[in-house]
Design a protein that fits this description.
By secondary structure, this protein is mainly alpha-helical. The chain has six helices and two strands; from the N terminus they run ββαααααα. It has a two-stranded antiparallel sheet with strand order 1-2. It starts with 13 loop residues before the first strand and ends in an 18-residue tail after the last helix.
Length: 127
């Protein structure tokens, strides 16, 4: 993943029940390949998710380096792609509520429209 010429996937994109995970995978791949560009890995938001996963940035980057697909990363994390555990869904809802403004700002910076995940209604109205 070359983030010198491309954007990582949106933070609101949900993978295995986790928002931000797909974006963090893209950033970790770019980190491993030396093509991170202006992005930071692990950034403070990455660290939130890494804490939830009980991993360090280095450990997660190693998992990503040893895998070729999102499905393989999920498998290494012990996360179901199709049936996330209730505690993951609770964490995801809190993350999306707490990071709503950050996700909207990122979308604007990347010249795309913020689309909340299906089934998520922000507590605060859109700005």
């Amino acid at each position: 993943m070359d983030l010198t010429n491309n954007f990582p996937r949106p933070g609101e994109y949900v993978l295995g029940g986790y928002p931000w995970l797909a974006r963090m995978i893209d950033k970790a791949r770019a980190y491993n390949e030396g093509t991170l560009g202006d992005y930071i890995y692990p950034c403070p938001i990455d660290k939130e998710l890494l804490s939830e996963l009980n991993l360090t940035g280095v450990e997660f980057a190693e998992i990503v380096e040893q895998t070729d697909s999102d499905e393989q990363v999920l498998s290494q994390l012990g996360v179901s792609a199709d049936n996330p555990k209730p505690e993951i869904l609770r964490w995801a809802r809190l993350f999306l509520e707490n990071r709503h403004d950050s996700l909207m700002r990122l979308a604007e910076e990347e010249n795309r429209v913020y689309v909340p995940p299906k089934g998520f209604t922000p507590v605060r109205p859109f700005a």
